[in-house]
Automatic annotation (TrEMBL):
PANTHER family: ARAC SUBFAMILY, HTH-TYPE TRANSCRIPTIONAL ACTIVATOR RHAS-RELATED. The keyword Transcription applies. Keywords: DNA-binding, Transcription, Transcription regulation. This is AraC family transcriptional regulator. GO terms for molecular function: DNA-binding transcription factor activity; sequence-specific DNA binding. The keyword DNA-binding applies. SMART domains: HTH_ARAC. Residues 217-316 form the HTH araC/xylS-type domain.
Amino acid sequence: MYRWCTDEVEPHDRFDYWREVRSKGLFGVTAELERERRTDFYGEFSLRQLGGAGLVELKASPYTVERSTSDIAYAPSDSICVYQQLGSGGWFGGMRGSDFSIANGSFATSHTDLPYRTTPLGAGGFHLRILKVPVSSLPTQDKRVRELVPRTFGDPTLTPLLSACFADLGKAAVDAEGALDAASLVQALAHLALIERGIVRPGSRLGQAALRTARLSQARHLISRHLQDPALDPAMVAGQLGVSVRHLHMLFEAAEKSFSLTVTDERLKQSRRLMLEAPERRIADIAASCGFESLATYYRVFNAAYGMAPGDFRTQGSEGH
């Protein structure tokens, strides 16, 4: 993973460096900002190569970005982008069709080689994730893929699926344990975007594969959010996913672990984190807070998974620190 921020450059040079080296040289866009505001400019980004795609997270104080026809000619990309808006919102314009705003928590998509302009709406500036997927890596080669002018997602049912996939993709970048395969997540995000734009049918092979991956990702996030609930079961998660219990079990059949094993594994990992973060907390309280029905069950399951009692793990962890 590559990280960079403007703290590495003298204040009077920060925006110029950002504009010429980062914006134009790395992203193929033109950055604009009034000269009197440039000394206060701040920007940072990370770039990760995952599953054949590039994942960028960018934060920056307000400025204007343009992807002009000359920028496209200088740095063609032939990729589709899926944007996750994390900041106060943004404005897109300058392309065919209407200008639009994108709110915090919303998603948009586009093809990289079509002109646009964008700027943040709030004083907080930019904060967004951008997944750039080369068209050549997509199984579908429909010519409409290259006609995707920037547009927000109009289907609200896709939002939790997209959020879960983006979160898991970020997790895969730093810790592969427990995360879905990065290539599957990239393809799922790309094809969810193409489903929303009417290029891929939800019932097609590609559409079904994308929805399976995304639903499994969302199911795992639902499990993580409800670990302390003893009533956590397949019916609860299936209901929140909007699928049948049978369909939920089918999702986990394709994964490494079943639903019940995934729940147990997540509860154990959470208990280990709590034991290390709160060494003064009683083990019985930790077990209950992670959803184990009894202390005896917790000890039995923990010992089977790690070959030691929880107290021994805590002792080893405190000695390691």
